[in-house]
Amino acid sequence: MEILIRPTPEAVATQAADIIAGYVQHGSVLGLATGSTPIATYQELIRRHQQEGLSFAGCKVFMLDEYLGLDPQHEQSYARTIRREFTEHLDINDADVFSPSGNSGDPLAAAADYERHITSEHVAIQLLGIGSNGHIGFNEPTSSLNSVTRLKTLHPQTIRDNARFFDTPDEVPTHVLTQGLATIRRAGHLLLVATGASKAAAIAATVEGPLSSMCPASTLQLHPHATVLIDEEAASQLTFREYYQYADQNKPAFQGY
Ligand code: PGA
Known about the structure:
Elements: E1 2-6, H1 9-21, E2 29-32, H2 39-52, E3 60-63, E4 65-67, H3 78-85, E5 97-98, H4 107-119, E6 125-128, E7 150-153, H5 156-162, E8 175-178, H6 181-185, E9 189-194, H7 200-208, E10 226-231, H8 241-249
Parallel strand pairs: 1-10, 2-3, 2-6, 3-5, 6-9, 9-10
Antiparallel strand pairs: 4-8, 7-8
Helix pairs in contact: 1-2
Bound molecules: 2-phosphoglycolic acid.
C-alpha cells in the first residue's frame, strides 16, 4: 500500500486531483464517491477542466452507492449529488454517469443489475472516502470482504453522521445499495482520501490493523495498487510513518512506477 501524508486537506485534494487526472482520457471509466472529503478534489478537477483544458469527454462514471427510497432527482440522492458537485461542471455525457437505482421497486434486482453493469467495464481508478468506523462505500463493519453490490442496512451512527444533509434525522434513509468490497477491489487503482482527526483511528486500522471485516477499508490490503492519501491529522495514529515518508520521498525513478 502506498501511504501519502500531506500537510493539509488542500494538499490532499491537489494530489488526489493529480492522480485522478492521470487516468482521464477518452473512454476512461472512473469510480467516484460522495461525502464531504472528495469535494475539494472535485473542485480542483473542475478548475483544471475550466482553466487548463482537462477534458472528461468520453469518460464514464460509476458511483459507489445510493440511498434506498430516494428518487434520483432528490437533492440528497447520490446520483443528484455527484452531478451537482462534479459532473455537471464537466464535458461528460450525463447519460454516462451511473449509480445503483435507489428507487427501484425491486432493489435486489437493481443491485444485481448494477453489479453486472460495473463488472462489464474496467474501472481504472476508484476514489474512496472512509467512515469513522472504517466503512467504504456503505460497507459497514462486518461486511464480507467478498461482498458484491447489494442492499445494506446503515449503522445508526452512519445515519446520525449523514443527518446533517437532511432537514430532520428521520428523513435519512435507513437502507442503501452499495458496491461490495469485492466489487470495489476490481478497480485498477484504489485511491482512499481522508482528512481530520476523526478519521485517524480508521486509517490506522486500515493500514496497520489486521485484514478484517470489522474494518472494511482494510480490504485495501488485498489490492495490488492501493493509495491512502491523508493529511497530518488523519495520519496521527500511524506508527510506521517514518517508512511511509521515506518511501514517498525516495520513489524509484523507473518509468511507469
Ligand atoms: P465524509 O464521508 O467524506 O463525509 O467524511 C466518508 C464516508 O462516510 O464514506
